[in-house]
Amino acid sequence: MKHFKGFPKDRARKLEYILHDIDDTITENGRLLPNAFQALWDLSQEGLKVIPVTGRPAGWCDLIVRQWPVDAVIGENGAFCFYMRNDRLQKLIHPHVCENVKERLKQIQDVCLREVPGCRAAKDQFSRLYDLAIEFNEEEPRLGFEAAYQIQSLCESFGAEAKVSSIHVNVWFGKYDKLSMTKIMFEQIYQEKRVKEKALFFGDSPNDEPMFEFFTNSCAVANIKPFLDKLRHKPAYMAEKENGRGFSESVSQLLSLRRT
Hints:
Blueprint: E1 2-3, H1 9-14, E2 17-20, H2 34-45, E3 49-52, H3 58-67, E4 72-75, E5 80-85, E6 88-93, H4 102-115, E7 120-121, E8 132-135, H5 145-156, E9 161-164, E10 168-172, H6 178-188, H7 195-198, E11 199-203, H8 209-214, E12 218-220, E13 237-238, H9 243-259
Parallel strand pairs: 1-13, 2-3, 2-11, 11-12, 12-13
Antiparallel strand pairs: 4-5, 5-6, 7-8, 8-10, 9-10
């Protein structure tokens, strides 16, 4: 990995899309700080299409695509893409999403809550359409990543997909992830074929690994460091700072390169 301040000027000028995770990538301690939100506006005003790619639920994504300076949003770890066209919300659902799995997910939730004391369903579970989020690190008690990997193992024993983020273990049925939905989005919404040259992805945790693997232009904020020994595919670049401060700093560096 290289420091993001060494990102090549010629690559910066070719970019048309900025994709980014949300939690602990553009936020800090659960808050979207002014400099990180301003960075999203700066990217949009530069003419770049900003696209969050997150594990957060449909309810959040509906608000984000309506009120943030973004062109689209991928949610629930790749279950769908929401985007606005002619002031109307449009929805693209991943073809491998499994419908009618709430009872199966509830069974998994009950087992996790019993076997891993202190874990709980995420507070935003009520606004999810396709997945289950087991919280281990968003609020107190914070259980740490040993508990997260125990939760992940329990979920996978049911045949479910389970990915660890910095705060949740996201669980679903169906063969999809952030990357596969991203590819579908580019094909069907943007009719874009040269994605690797034109997009830059920012992330922070193991559930971003498929994106780090695929995108030549990928950057992690500095709080990725505790996960690095667990990642087979690491980001190409790393910000100097953590969380939203690392994101906003990197955006400033990127825009400076484009304007030089």
